């Protein structure tokens, strides 16, 4: 049965215990990204980003797929029929929410429950951390239908994989499973499908204990310094910490105090108690 989803229904989300669970919600189309989905995802990210009850965002998929990449019919064929204006508009909608996610105010986790193809590598890379089911399948399938891995996918592959693995992956159009994706560095970790949600929840809970200003400064720093010389990175990190002090001057003092004066925790073994933050 063909399900015609409203734009609003292409993305689903719930917020529970500080975690926003956001789902690609076109399971009948293996969660491929249509212009409707891309527009709705941007609205959902916008709605959740600065909410006080959201500390971590998890991006996952409904059904058997995480995302089967771009929608070949609605994203490619139908927008191309509209000419260059249509093509550029749909590109900017897709790239726009991936970019928003890349620099999101809260830490983000990709929970890859199944198929992850092509354009899906954009949001995969946008998420700060990535966990997958061992039997999830990852592929740069573009070569199989006659294009290069665009929309950032080649950049993602070369950022995260060795040159040899990136080249093999892009040229051969063969899929790798979650275990191989973890070995190659495409994701952090692969676990049995039945424990995926529990593992992601465990990681999210650890993040929820950390100072949120420090989390945002850290995630941005990791992405920014990758493209800098050592000296530029050194300077950027000084400025970034000073900017973080402006937003949260007391957190780090409290962290030092609880270790040095109160002796209530050890930073090498866990986070300070933030209920003491001024
Ligand atoms: N674009 C458009 N439609 C897609 C799609 C995509 N990327 N991926 C899946 N669909 C649609 C199928 O056309 C099918 O639609 P229908 O029910 O109207 O016939 C529906 O989703 C289910 O897909 P199906 O192929 O029957 O599911 P499957 O579980 O047997 O296979 C995949 C899953 C992901 C292996 C397969 O759908 C596939 O190869 N998709 C394309 C992946 C791809 O190359 N993406 C790269 C885009 S950059």
TrEMBL record:
InterPro entries tied to this protein: ClpP/crotonase-like_dom_sf, Enoyl-CoA_hydra/iso, Enoyl-CoA_Hydratase/Isomerase
Q: What class of enzyme is it?
A: lyase
Its EC number is 4.1.2.41, 4.2.1.101
Entry's Gene Ontology BP terms: isoprenoid catabolic process
Q: Name one GO molecular function term.
A: lyase activity
Keyword list, A-Z: Lyase
Q: What family name appears in the similarity comment?
A: Belongs to the enoyl-CoA hydratase/isomerase family.
User: What is the protein's name according to its record?
Assistant: p-hydroxycinnamoyl CoA hydratase/lyase
Source organism of the structure: Parahaliea maris
The organism's lineage is: Bacteria, Pseudomonadati, Pseudomonadota, Gammaproteobacteria, Cellvibrionales
């Amino acid at each position: 049965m063909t399900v015609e989803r409203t734009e609003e229904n292409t993305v689903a989300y719930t917020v529970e215990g500080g975690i926003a669970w956001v789902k690609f919600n076109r399971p009948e189309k293996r969660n491929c990204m249509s212009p409707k989905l891309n527009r709705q995802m941007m609205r959902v990210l916008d709605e959740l980003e600065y909410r006080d009850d959201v500390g971590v965002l998890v991006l996952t998929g409904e059904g058997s797929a995480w995302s089967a990449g771009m929608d070949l019919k609605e994203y490619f064929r139908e927008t191309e029929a509209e000419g260059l204006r249509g093509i550029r508009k749909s590109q900017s909608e897709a790239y726009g929410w991936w970019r928003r996610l890349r620099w999101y105010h809260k830490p983000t986790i990709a929970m890859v429950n199944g198929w992850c193809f092509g354009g899906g590598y954009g949001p995969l890379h946008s998420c700060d951390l990535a966990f997958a089911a061992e039997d999830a399948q990852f592929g740069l399938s573009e070569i199989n239908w006659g294009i290069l891995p665009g929309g950032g996918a080649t950049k993602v592959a070369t950022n995260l994989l060795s040159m040899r693995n990136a080249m093999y992956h892009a040229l051969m159009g063969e899929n790798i499973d979650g275990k191989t994706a973890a070995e190659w560095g495409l994701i952090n970790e692969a676990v049995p499908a039945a424990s995926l949600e529990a593992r992601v929840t465990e990681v999210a809970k650890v993040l929820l204990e950390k100072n949120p200003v420090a989390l945002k400064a850290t995630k941005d720093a990791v992405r920014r310094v990758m493209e800098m010389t050592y000296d530029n990175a050194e300077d950027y990190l000084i400025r970034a910490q000073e900017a973080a002090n402006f937003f949260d001057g007391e957190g780090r003092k409290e962290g030092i105090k609880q270790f040095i004066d109160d002796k209530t925790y050890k930073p090498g073994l866990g986070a300070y108690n933030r209920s003491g933050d001024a």
